[in-house]
Design brief:
- By secondary structure, the chain is an alpha/beta fold.
- It has helices at 16-34, 41-51, 76-87, 101-114, 141-159, 162-170, 202-209, 236-243, 264-273, and strands at 2-6, 9-13, 62-64, 69-71, 90-94, 120-125, 174-178, 190-194, 217-222, 250-254.
- The protein contains 9 helices and 10 strands.
- The strands form 3 sheets. Strands 7-6-8-9-5-10 form a 6-stranded parallel sheet.
- It is globular.
């Protein structure tokens, strides 16, 4: 297939199927440019992937009023994940690094928070070292646990302006805490995310899931190939995947190496380790 540029006109030559797909991709990107969005190479790659999917990228979107951005799925699995987040009260997103699980979960939570569908956004992770021993960490409790929760902060700062994130955290509308802080609580009218769930034990997973209260939603994300628990302990995520079948309002969405939306090398690296 060949694409020729003539001023502001593109001439596409090739087989009809390829022409149709290319036209679909270009039209989707043009619509986003017309809205004032910036298009990156990752956006182009995502549009190409979605042009091959049953669900087109324009069918599923999250509009974040705080930054006036649209977040589109960049793979069929991401589209399935977003639809599950919209529909179900408990969603598991399982797959390798770089597939957008945490990012999309935080995006949906931010969207629902700003739309008034939930009153709080609660984000949690197990505070476990990734195969390393960091030793004693100085500082108060917040300073000790913040390094474990940094990826969640990064996603939030991509959803909201920095001062707004800090205000929402200060007022308790957004809460970021280690998994251990969930014990004994009932979380109502909240959007709750558990990230890195592969590093929970079976009892920790049970404890977390039973925090679900009225008007709340939960999202559990993890990578079953990166478990940092001692060999003698079973992962709560793997246990949940085998235990929960055919439960209403509960979805499992599995991502693969082809869903990686980071640098193209990351997808190849994930496949090499599979």
């Amino acid at each position: 297939m060949h694409i020729h540029s003539r001023g502001n006109v593109l001439l596409i030559e090739g087989e009809q199927n390829n022409i149709s797909q290319t036209t679909s991709v270009l039209n989707a990107l043009i619509k986003r440019l017309e809205k004032g969005e910036t298009i990156s190479l990752s956006d182009v790659d995502g549009s190409v992937r979605m042009s091959k999917a049953p669900v087109k990228e324009g069918d599923v979107k999250i509009h974040l009023k705080t930054s006036n951005r649209f977040i589109f799925p960049r793979s069929p699995s991401q589209a399935t994940f977003i639809k599950a987040l919209e529909k179900d009260e408990l969603v598991f997103g399982v797959g390798p690094a770089g597939t957008g699980k945490t990012y999309l979960a935080v995006a949906m939570g931010a969207s629902m928070l700003m739309a008034g569908k939930v009153e709080r956004l609660i984000l949690s992770r197990p505070a476990i070292e990734a195969g390393e021993r960091l030793g004693f960490l100085p500082g108060d409790l917040k300073e000790k646990v913040d390094p474990y929760l940094r990826p969640i902060y990064d996603a939030l700062y991509d959803m909201f302006p920095g001062p707004q994130v800090e205000k929402l955290i200060a007022t308790g509308v957004i809460e970021i805490a280690p998994l251990a802080f969930m014990r004994g609580r009932t979380l109502c009218d909240a959007y709750v995310i558990l990230d890195e769930a592969q590093n929970t034990t079976v009892l920790q997973m049970k404890m977390f899931l039973t925090r679900l209260g009225e008007g709340s939603r939960m999202v559990v994300t993890g990578d079953a190939t990166q478990i940092d628990l001692p060999v003698s302990q079973q992962s709560g995520l793997l246990d949940a995947m085998s235990r929960f079948k055919n439960i209403p309002s509960l979805s499992f969405v599995e991502f693969g190496a082809d869903d990686v939306v980071r640098h193209p090398l990351v997808s190849a690296i994930v496949k090499a380790y599979a």
